[in-house]
């Protein structure tokens, strides 16, 4: 029998102790600011998490789906018996805790999971990695003006995908376990004290206020019922795509972009089969061996990115849009292509 | 609003109405502070979308290669030099273009502004003559614009367009004082291994998104060497060697053609100062051939000219 999940509480100044305790069981990744932006990093002794961040520049998807991952290795040396035979590359799946992940990025992992782990396909590495990671979310008390999470089935304190959700109550941190995994983590971290009702009320208020502070909203209600060909042939794609320089910034920063390419790299008679992040923005993404490219034009590639997120995914998985409203693409697109505007154009067509 | 905006709109409207051009390439106001969006306008009634401020850091010449018809284009100093490079390299014809020149006193580096306020969000920007006000929740600063310029603008000596059909304002005074290659000399003063370490650290965060390459007006090859798949020249992973090959080769392809517009650096999502690579080569080209890219539409770039009577023996 499992106990019900009870909110726990600890002093904020004990945060470093909490992390230190976790390090006995987990590899602990926390946000740190380095070379101009925030990123998740394993902390060494004496280093501290910097929780003043709004969000990390790149999403933490790379801890489940690394940008470059060695899948197999092989030898071409025919004197060796198993020449040309692919052998799975060894990987570590040691228990890892991402502490401070934003709720949007955790929810994104659920959205991607339906692609990598479904009755038809099961990507063993994605599944094993995701299982080995415990996600300790930190609610966004101060969301950005480019965050639109509440419009896309998410929110600044959204719980889906998380194992624990932390509420920053200034002097205290309220820790809400959401899964057995999360409960175990809090035990490892020495967090045992039950939260009192006053703190729970404060947490509730913090959440409500944060949700009210989201000022950016996008419409999504009509996307599902639109005719896919009407959207595909919509008149606005040329305008949307004009400024696009077809770089991979949006797709590489996005927590829900999962596309990859597989390459063999050989050196001195041995080699690796590697899977690398790919981007629908790149012409090579769809280039056929024949030389034909079904998405040879920029506008086709731009359309693909938005159609995939806001229509194909919606239709295929009946799971909402493939976007969590983190706003990274809005903030870092070098030419200011704003997905919120594309939501409007597609929804209102 | 910036003093050039009205004039840009007036000229743009006029040339569209008079059918002197089929379209205008300019900037429109961004959806978030410190950003602008390149825009294509065909209808005179839409010219009020055109906008100008100190965050028009993309280089509009990027949108020119192989474009047909008569094109109106807004150009600050560096954009105009890249337009000149395109003309010399046969990417567009001079007679296709109506260039609306904008005198430039430098673009403001949004990252420099952001680092001033930590990780807080800048929610509002207001520009006045020479000043810039940055506001967000719990802070407000009025700053001197000149203290927050992009690195390339600090060293710029061609702020006025070199090529234009109309100007949206009076020419600004060109600066004579900047030391254009002080940073290059600093790196050259390093030992070899130090220099390698410096470059490797510089690109450590590169995600191979190619924003630097794609923001660059010079990178118009139909298929870039990193995208070539038969044969494949460069590995596609984030192996540091492959990443370094990409950056070094990209810089070499820009040698003698780069105007140091800084679009590459501004586009980079992880803030890599990629200009360190191109600037070293710009300096070499300047030292060896006394040439700066894009100052004339008569001269070919130094690295694609050959003269049988060249005074250097090694090339004859």
List keywords for this structure.
heterodimer; A: 349 residues; alpha/beta; 2 domains; seven-stranded mixed sheet; four-stranded antiparallel sheet; 11 helices; 11 strands; 31% helix; B: 316 residues; five-stranded mixed sheet; three-stranded antiparallel sheet; 10 helices; 30% helix; 13% strand; globular
In brief:
The complex is a heterodimer of chains A (349) and B (316). Chain A is built from eleven helices and eleven strands. Chain A is an alpha/beta fold and 349 residues long.
Q: What is the fold's blueprint, element by element?
A:
The complex is a heterodimer of chains A (349) and B (316).
Chain A lengths: L7 E4 L3 H8 L4 E8 L2 E6 L25 E8 L11 E2 L7 E6 L1 H14 L7 H9 E6 L25 E6 L2 E6 L2 H9 L8 H17 L14 H5 L4 H6 L6 H5 L6 E8 L2 E8 L20 H20 L10 H5 L6 H10 L1
Parallel strand pairs in A: 2-6, 6-7, 7-8
Antiparallel strand pairs in A: 1-9, 2-3, 4-5, 4-11, 8-9, 10-11
Chain B lengths: L4 H13 L5 E7 L6 E6 L29 E5 L1 H12 L8 E5 L8 H7 L7 E5 L2 E6 L2 E6 L6 H4 L11 E2 L14 H7 L3 H11 L8 H5 L24 H15 L8 H5 L7 H15 L27
Parallel strand pairs in B: 1-3, 3-4, 4-8
Antiparallel strand pairs in B: 1-2, 5-6, 6-7
What does this structure look like?
The complex is a heterodimer of chains A (349) and B (316). Chain A contains eleven helices and eleven strands. By secondary structure, chain A is α/β, with parallel strands linked by helices. Chain A has two domains: 206 residues, no CATH class; 121 residues, no CATH class. Chain A has a seven-stranded mixed sheet. Chain A is globular and about 65 Å long. The mean pLDDT of chain A is 95. Chain B is an alpha/beta fold and 316 residues long. Chain B contains ten helices and eight strands. A five-stranded mixed sheet of chain B has the order 2-1-3-4-8. Chain B has a three-stranded antiparallel sheet with strand order 5-6-7, with no helix packed on it. The chains are: A alpha/beta (349), B alpha/beta (316).
């Amino acid at each position: 029998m499992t106990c019900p999940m009870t909110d726990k509480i600890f002093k904020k100044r004990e945060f470093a102790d909490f992390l230190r305790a976790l390090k006995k069981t987990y590899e602990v990744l926390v946000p740190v600011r380095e070379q101009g932006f925030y990123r998740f990093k394993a902390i060494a002794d004496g280093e501290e998490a910097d929780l003043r961040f709004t969000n990390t520049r790149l999403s933490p998807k790379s801890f489940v789906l690394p940008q470059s991952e060695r899948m197999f290795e092989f030898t071409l040396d025919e004197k060796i018996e198993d020449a040309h035979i692919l052998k799975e590359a060894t990987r570590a799946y040691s228990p890892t805790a991402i502490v401070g992940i934003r709720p949007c990025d955790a929810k994104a992992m659920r959205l991607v999971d339906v692609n990598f782990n479904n009755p038809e396909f099961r990507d063993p590495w994605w599944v094993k990695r995701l299982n080995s990671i415990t996600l300790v979310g930190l609610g966004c008390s101060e969301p950005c003006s480019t965050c639109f999470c509440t419009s896309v089935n998410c929110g600044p304190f959204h719980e889906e995908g998380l194992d624990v959700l932390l509420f920053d109550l200034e002097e205290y941190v309220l820790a809400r376990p959401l899964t057995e995994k999360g409960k175990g983590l809090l035990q490892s971290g020495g967090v045992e004290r039950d939260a009192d009702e006053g703190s729970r009320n404060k947490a509730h208020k913090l959440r409500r206020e944060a949700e009210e502070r989201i000022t950016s909203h996008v419409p999504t209600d009509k996307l599902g019922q639109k005719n896919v060909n009407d959207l595909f042939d919509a008149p606005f794609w040329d305008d949307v795509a004009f400024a696009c320089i077809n770089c991979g910034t949006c797709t590489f920063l996005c927590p829900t972009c999962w596309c990859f390419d597989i390459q063999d790299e050989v050196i001195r008679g041995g080699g690796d089969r590697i899977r690398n992040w790919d981007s629908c923005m790149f012409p090579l993404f769809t280039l056929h061996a024949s030389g034909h490219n079904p998405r040879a034009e920029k506008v086709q590639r731009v359309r693909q990115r938005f159609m995939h997120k806001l229509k194909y995914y919606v239709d295929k998985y009946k799971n909402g849009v493939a976007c969590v409203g983190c706003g990274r693409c809005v903030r870092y697109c070098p030419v200011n292509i704003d997905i919120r505007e594309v939501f409007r154009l597609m929804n209102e067509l | 609003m910036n003093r050039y905006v009205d004039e840009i709109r007036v000229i743009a409207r006029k040339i569209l109405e008079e059918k002197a051009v089929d379209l205008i390439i300019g900037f429109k106001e961004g959806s978030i502070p410190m950003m602008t969006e390149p825009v294509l306008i065909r209808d005179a009634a839409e010219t009020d979308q055109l906008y100008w401020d100190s965050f028009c850091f993309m280089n509009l010449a990027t949108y020119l290669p192989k474009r047909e018809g008569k094109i109106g284009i807004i150009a600050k100093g560096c954009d105009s030099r890249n337009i000149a490079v395109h003309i010399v390299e046969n990417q567009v014809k001079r007679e296709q273009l109506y260039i609306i020149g904008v005198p430039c006193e430098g673009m403001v580096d949004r990252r420099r502004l952001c680092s001033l306020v930590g990780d807080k969000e800048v929610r509002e920007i207001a520009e006045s003559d020479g000043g810039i006000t940055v506001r967000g929740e719990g802070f407000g600063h009025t700053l001197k614009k000149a203290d927050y310029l992009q690195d390339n603008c600090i060293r710029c000596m061609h702020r006025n367009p070199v090529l234009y059909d109309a100007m949206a304002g009076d020419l600004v005074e060109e600066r004579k004082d900047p030391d254009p290659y002080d940073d290059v000399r600093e790196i050259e003063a390093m030992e070899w291994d130090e220099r390698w370490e410096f470059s490797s650290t510089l690109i450590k965060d590169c995600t191979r998104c190619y924003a630097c390459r794609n923001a660059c007006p010079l990178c118009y090859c139909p298929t870039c060497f990193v995208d070539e798949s038969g044969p494949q020249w460069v590995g596609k992973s984030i192996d540091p060697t492959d990443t370094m090959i990409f950056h070094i080769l990209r810089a070499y392809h820009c040698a003698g053609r780069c105007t140091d517009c800084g679009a590459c650096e501004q586009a980079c999502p992880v803030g890599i100062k990629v200009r360190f690579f191109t600037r070293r080569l710009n300096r070499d080209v300047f030292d060896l051939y006394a040439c700066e890219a894009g100052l004339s539409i008569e001269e070919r770039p130094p690295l694609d000219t050959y003269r049988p009577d060249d005074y250097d023996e090694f090339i004859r």
